[in-house]
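Appendix B. Extra example for self-study. Work through it before the problem class; the solution is given directly after the inputs so you can check yourself.
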Amino acid sequence: MNKKLVSVMAGLRGSLLLLTVLMGSVVQAQQTQETLIRNATVITVTRGTLENTDVLLRNGKIAAIGKNLNASSSARVIDGTGKYVMPGIIDCHSHSMLDTINEGTLAVTSMVRTADVMNPTDVDLYRELAGGVTTLNLLHGSANPIGGLNTVVKIKYGRPASEFLFPGAMPGIKFALGENVKRSSTPNQPGVTRRYPNTRMGVEETIRDAFVRARDYKRAWDEYRAAAGKDKNLLPPRRDLQLEPLVEILEGKRYVHAHCYIASEILMLINLADEFGFKIKTFQHVLEGYKVAKEIAAHGAGASIFADSWGYKIEAYDAIPYNAAIMTRAGVVVSMNSDSDERARRLNIEAAKAMHWGDLTEEQAMRLITINPAIQLGIQERVGSIEVGKDADIAIWNGHPFSVYSRVDTTFVDGVVFFDRQQDLARRADLAKERALLEQADPNKPPVRGQSPETPRRRRPTHNDDTIEEEQP
Amino acid sequence: MSVCFVCGQTSRAQQIGSPTTQEGVLPPRGVFAIRNARIVTVSGPEIANGTVVIRDGKIEAVGASVNVPAGAQIIEGRGLSVYPGMIDAGTNMGLVEVPQGANGTVDLSEVGEFNPNAKAIIAVNPHSAHIAVTRVEGVTNTVTAPTGGLISGQAALINLLGTAPKEMAVVPQAALVINYPRVGGGGGGGFGGPQQQPANLSETLEANARQVEEIRKMLRDAEAYGRSQDAYAKDKSLPRPDRIVVLESLVPYVRGQQPVIFRAEREAEIRGAIKFAEEMKLKPVILGGNDAWKVASLLKEKSVPVILTGVLSLPVREDDAYDTLYENPAKLQQAGVLFAISTGDAGPEVRNLAQYAGMAAAYGLSKTEALKSVTLYPAQIMNVADRLGSIEVGKMANLVVTDGDLLEIRTRIRYLLIDGRSVVLSSRHTELNDAFKNRR
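Solution. Structure tokens for the complete assembly:
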């Protein structure tokens, strides 16, 4: 085989995914700008559940909800009889599509951004769409008290990363407390100095120190701006990329999403935020939130939690699955998140668990994965419920989304189909054929004796908050 | 039913004896009758409205027109359903309390590659918080397995009730656990040691073959050991063979009397394990089985059952269909392979077993088969279908009374009997809930 052809085949080698993407785009191009879903059960979340109801999607928005709606002749019509329409699920704690998540070398890394490491071809995004998820809060990891900046995205799988960015979402940042920050599971290495902090005392002090510096920095800029009008020769303060996001927090322009576990550290951060005059938008995980629910509610913070994960480390040993119910009843805005590409695919079930443990109503439970996380991300005017004028980010389910026996038929983002089970099934034979073809290509033949085998493995590891990354080469 | 019977409210259960989960006191066996209930027997037809009578730990009678014996404690089942307790055949329940940050609570994995005489039943902690947390969700039994090395040790099949391992044991030495050597992997399996990237294919394959050969040699030694012991038992004039506890523990397994569980996920390992077991005349069970759907016809042909632990896992390969693992059970069922669904978890997640089975039913498996995959099928695979897995006369009274479909998330457990003992539906979690839910 000549050199050129080899390189073509080598290019093809990793291209199964590309083909999927291309076919996906073809599918999308064929979508009309208008879709009418007829006669479905519509779970609006904010306006009740409507039986035998039509939903019209037009130009990326929900154009109408009602009975016997009319659509243009070119509209795609879906028979929703026996099906359920619900808002696209919002995962308020995700690390999908991030090539790396922990800049853990410093205790304060507010200068780094998850937006810089987004990989839009991560196949787990597609698998999440297949679970009815449409929006993700991409968070930095939990290696440091003040971590990097988050990114809120719509899952527009197959499109460039820039198109994923959720317009108008509030900027945010990750904080973290507890075992991960203390690096409890990192053994002491002889000759290696441990990174500060090493205790929950040091975690508080680290955050306090950063905000003292941020307050001074803000004052320097405020004074400069006040004086600059009068004195044009005045030099501005030196920009500090670490402190700028913290100033935005002090000014209420950036949301804090704080990873935490135990009651004492939750209270610590509330007290510290109150002292500096800023708000914690969400406590993330917050496994012992139920012990201090009234303090969380009084501060006005939300809580974004697991349904029932517990016991995987010491600080998770007092976690209970009644957390959502207790905090909801205390007045906390609660959401159910995944922190896992695997779990993100079944957040509907995670929400249903709040009915099983703790007796939340169906509507309260449904809010945990729709409007509540939307509120926590500052996107509640755009998504999180089925209302006229909101973004057409919805999923059609073949049964009630809280039934374990249900699955997603179709997922729309901005009115465009990004997952459709029938299309997925129809594509499989072609993909299998292409795979067989590629396996027969020279570059993909089994290696000759003595050569290194191509062991199948994931393109990248999935991350969760406990992922401690080694230094990358 | 006017009383909500979740969240640890125990008043209802106290009507049926003085059950307790307090350590040190087992709730008594007695005579119970669950009447006017829908009875999902699993092994036979569903009884729309019937009675189950339990006496001295066993199911004494089941049917639509069964009389309630005099003096029986009555569980009013109107509007409720009775199911056999669920069985998770792929756990490490009771061997680990907190896996990270509390090594002292971890008893999973012995030092070295060959530990056939390491027995899970020795280390199971009956007072682990995981046990009550799990059983109150309807899981009454687990297979509890050690994890390390090539031959990890022996798994126990336990009731999730008891104040001592002996009281919990249904089959104390239920199966031998072998981590079938992975190409390109260490022995290990189980809990995430670093995967070595092979430097050289031939070296890798040779290393793999060496590991298989080491297991083979140990099992052959055990066969020979068994023969020499038998010969000596018949003829005491022979020189008395030394007792070797390591080999002795392998004898029932190499004789095919007890199942050998092979941890194997990928196609190559599953095929390897099947071939190895056939050669050694073992009674194999595949544990893990993410690629089992690719090997379904061979599994059927060789009658090798599978305990699937990855139903809710992400598909293994990037180009796998999104529902590859959700569909794995349905594909095995269609091929006629005997399979069970398991969480594969050390403890915390085992209570969600129903969800694992239910989601498989969203992707091709029938609801009936999904239910069997966590009741009768694991009992069959573990050779205890005479005692567990369905509601039949003579079986152990491990029963769950629910207010709905056992596999649905929103369903609640109303009553629980294990080994004919009525168990209070409280756990560390209900206790913490009770302690904090009214904090104002």
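Self-check: The first helix of chain A runs from residue 3 to 13. If your reasoning did not lead you there, revisit section 3.
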